[in-house]
Design brief:
- There is one protein chain.
- The protein is an alpha/beta fold.
- The protein folds into two domains: about 200 residues, Aminoglycoside phosphotransferase (APH), C-terminal lobe (Aminoglycoside 3'-phosphotransferase, Chain: A, domain 2); about 170 residues, Rossmann fold (3-Layer(aba) Sandwich).
- It is about 55% helix and about 10% strand.
- The protein is built from 16 helices and nine strands.
- The strands form three sheets. The chain has a five-stranded parallel β-sheet with strand order 6-7-5-8-9, sandwiched between helices. It has a two-stranded antiparallel ribbon with strand order 1-4.
- It is globular, with a radius of gyration of 22 Å.
- The model has no long low-confidence stretch (mean pLDDT about 90).
Length: about 375
C-alpha cells in the first residue's frame, strides 16, 4: 500500500541517520564496482546478449564519469556510512504492521560501507524490477522528505546507483543460477533492462498542481509522480508537508491557525522552490503540490523552470465548493489542516490562473488522472 511504502522510506531514513560515518573515496568505491561488472559481464555475453552487455558497459561508464566528482564530495560531506549493504525486499519484514530491516552485511565492513543513497538504491531498483513503480517512487519521496533536503542534490548519482545495483543482481543471478538456464537467462536479462531503463535520461520537467483545498491535488500528484521523468519518477513536493517540516512537527500534527500567515506561506513556497531547484539541477523531475492561490507563487514556479531551462506545466483542479467542503470535513490522518472554513475563505478570494490547464476534479480519481496525463502527454504506466 501507499502508506506502507511511505513508512518504509521513513524507516530507512531513520536507519541511515545514526549510521556511523566512514572515511573514503566515493568515486573509487563505485568505480571498482563498474570495473567488476565489466569484467564479469565479458564472460556472460552468451547469457545476457553481447549487444546489451556493450550498451550496459558504455552507458554505465558514462554515467559514472559524470557522477564521479559528486561521489567524492558526498563522501567528504558525510554520506559515506556503515549502512545496511543488502537492502532489498527479501531483507524486510513486517512486525506489528511496521516494516523492519534485517540481515544487514554486519559481517563485512567493506561491503557494508557505502553512500546512503546507494544503500537505498538497492530497494528502489528491486521494486522497479518487479514493476512496482509507484511504491518505488513513494519510498524515495518519503526518504527524501525525512532527509529534509540534504539529499536532493545527490540524486544526480541515482541513475548510476540504480544501474549498478541491477547489474550486480544480474551477475549474481548467473553465478548462482544453477538448473534452469532459460529462467536464469530471463531473470538476468530483466535486471540488465532495468539498469538500462534507469540510465535513460529524459530532460527533467517541472509540474505544478494547484487548486483549492479538497480538490485532490495530493492524490493526483502521487499518482502522476511515477510516470514523470527518469526512474523512479518525479519528486513530489507538498506544501502541507514542507509547512510541518518548517514548524518542526510531525506531518499528522495540527498547527494552530496563527501558523497560516502570509509570512509562513512565503517561507513554505521559498522552501518548495529551493528544493525544486536542487532536484531539477540533479536531473530529477519535480511535482509541486500547493494551492497556488497567489499569482506570485505561480509566477515563481514558472520563473524557476525558465531559469533552469526545463519545461513547465501548471494544472489547476476545479470542483464545486460543496464537494470540497465535504472532502476536507471527511479527512483523517492527513498532513493538511484545511477544513470547511478554510475552503470558504479560499473560495471568496479564488484567483484561478488563466494560463494553467484546468482539470475537472469533481469526478473520480481515475478520470482526473487520465485528464492530467493527457495534458502532460505521458502514458499511464505506473
Amino acid at each position: 500500500t501507499d502508506d506502507l511504502a511511505d513508512s518504509l522510506g521513513h524507516e530507512i531514513a531513520a536507519y541511515h541517520d545514526p549510521a556511523p560515518r566512514r572515511d573514503g573515496n566515493g568515486a573509487s568505491r563505485i568505480g571498482a564496482i563498474v570495473e567488476e561488472l565489466e569484467t564479469a559481464f565479458a564472460d556472460m555475453k552468451d547469457t545476457l546478449g553481447p549487444e546489451r552487455v556493450a550498451e550496459f558497459s558504455r552507458r554505465t561508464r558514462a554515467a559514472f564519469d559524470r557522477a564521479a566528482p559528486l561521489l567524492d564530495s558526498r563522501a567528504e560531506d558525510g554520506h559515506l556510512r556503515r549502512a545496511h549493504g543488502d537492502l532489498h525486499l527479501r531483507n524486510l519484514v513486517l512486525i506489528d504492521g511496521r516494516p523492519v530491516l534485517f540481515d544487514a552485511l554486519e559481517f563485512d565492513e567493506e561491503l557494508g560501507t557505502c553512500d546512503v543513497l546507494y544503500d537505498l538504491a538497492f530497494l528502489v531498483m528491486d521494486l522497479l524490477n518487479r514493476g512496482l513503480n509507484r511504491p518505488a517512487n513513494i519510498v524515495l519521496n518519503a526518504w527524501l522528505y525525512a532527509q529534509e533536503g540534504r539529499q536532493d542534490a545527490g540524486l544526480a548519482t541515482l541513475p548510476v546507483f540504480l544501474a549498478l545495483r541491477a547489474g550486480i543482481r544480474a551477475m549474481v543471478t548467473i553465478q548462482t543460477g544453477g538448473g534452469n538456464a532459460g529462467q536464469v537467462r530471463q531473470e538476468a536479462r530483466g535486471y540488465v533492462e532495468t539498469a538500462l531503463d534507469a540510465l535513460s535520461s529524459p530532460k527533467p520537467r517541472l509540474i505544478a498542481v494547484g487548486g483549492l483545498s479538497g480538490t485532490g491535488k495530493t492524490t493526483l500528484a502521487r499518482r502522476l509522480a511515477p510516470m514523470i521523468g527518469r526512474r523512479p519518477g518525479a519528486v513530489h513536493l507538498r506544501s502541507d508537508l514542507e509547512r510541518k517540516a518548517l514548524a518542526g512537527v510531525a506531518p499528522g500534527d495540527r498547527l494552530p491557525a496563527d501558523s497560516y500567515t502570509e509570512d509562513t506561506a512565503r517561507a513554505v513556497h521559498t522552501r518548495l522552490t529551493d528544493r525544486a531547484r536542487y532536484l531539477l539541477a540533479a536531473g530529477q523531475s519535480v511535482l509541486l503540490d500547493a494551492t497556488f492561490l497567489s499569482p506570485d507563487e505561480r509566477h515563481a514556479a514558472a520563473q524557476l523552470a525558465d531559469e533552469l531551462e526545463v519545461s513547465f506545466t501548471g494544472l489547476w483542479l476545479d470542483a464545486p465548493v460543496e464537494t470540497l467542503t465535504r472532502r476536507v470535513t471527511a479527512r483523517q490522518g492527513d498532513a493538511s489542516d484545511a477544513g470547511a472554513a478554510v475552503v470558504r475563505r479560499q473560495t471568496a478570494k479564488d484567483t484561478a490562473p488563466t494560463d494553467w490547464a484546468r482539470i475537472d476534479a469533481s469526478n473520480g480519481v481515475e478520470e482526473m488522472e487520465a485528464a492530467a496525463a493527457d495534458r502532460l502527454n505521458i502514458a499511464q504506466k505506473a
